[in-house]
Design goal:
single chain, Ribosomal Protein L22, Chain A, three-stranded antiparallel β-sheet, 4 helices
Length: about 120
């Protein structure tokens, strides 16, 4: 459904997007960082992510810079007028591991991965 939403948005308006498919963090933690940049100017969002203490902020910043570069190169949009219109966070896949526990038992360990899509549009 997200693909359909993205494609309709791109064809209707001048918008660019960038994706990251497998970020090694849970979607819940990624969404906390994504909430910092929703509906902000692209330059302000980049500065916000640059000084964020979360480890995943660097990955989010790379995807944002890729979306801005796509907007400039593919659509010829002005970088100064770009803003982050949508940030979509989703669950990618889960690696299942086991840890030895007492009495010969095993404890499950779930290593979550996330998807991230950032859509930037030109305002004005």
């Amino acid at each position: 459904m997200n693909e359909l939403l993205l494609n309709n948005n791109i064809y209707n308006e001048k918008a660019a997007f960038a994706k990251a498919q497998a970020i090694r963090v849970s979607p819940q933690k990624l969404n906390l960082v994504a909430a910092l940049i929703r509906n902000k100017k692209a330059a302000d969002a980049s500065v916000q992510l640059q000084f964020c203490k979360k480890k995943v902020a660097n990955d989010v910043r790379n995807v944002l810079m890729s979306a801005v570069a796509n907007a400039e190169h593919n659509f010829g949009l002005d970088i100064d007028n770009l803003y982050v219109s949508r940030v979509l966070v989703g669950k990618a896949f889960t690696m299942k591991r086991y840890s030895p526990r007492a009495r010969g038992r095993a404890g499950k360990i779930k290593k979550m991965f996330s998807k991230l899509t950032i859509i930037v549009e030109e305002r004005g």
